[in-house]
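Format notes (please read before filing issues)

Several people have asked whether sequences and structure tokens are stored in separate files. They are not. Every record keeps both together, in the order shown below: the sequence lines, then the token lines. Line labels are part of the format and must not be stripped during preprocessing.
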Amino acid sequence: MVDAAGEPPEVERRGLRRDIGLVLAVQAVSVALVAAWFASGHASAPDDGLLQLDILSLSERVPGVEAINGQPTMIVLTCPALLPAPPRVLDGPYGLVVSTDPLLAQRLALPLATSECQAGYVLLDGDSLVRYRSYDPGWAQHSFEQEVLLDHLAGGHG
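Then the structure lines:
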């Protein structure tokens, strides 16, 4: 028995199995490459805003940026139009700095905070290392979440 091309049917099946095998091999290599890229800690955002693999995995020193009194500190970067009234306070012995300085926003890798009024903040541990970075237009209303992170840093768990 032969097919329309004059080939025996088993030759056609072998070609089909080979093609399926090649597709599966390409998919497996693609999955392995993507997994290796994510495992290597590459940023998901151009400004490293999503570099964290878990909640406080950043550990970056930024020259000239210091924690207040050696305590975990929140540095908010925003534009004047987004400054809260009344000013925000934190519970606990944490430092809080609110800045509209575009150079500081650039150094802390949150350039859109002041240039496009997309407020953001960084959390420093007591050793002045940046441990968390996020754009958060509602930062003034998210004190609970921020203080959970600051408590974690203060307890030496970061």
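For reference, the curators noted about this record: Confidence is low (pLDDT under 50) at residues 41-54. The chain has four helices and five strands.
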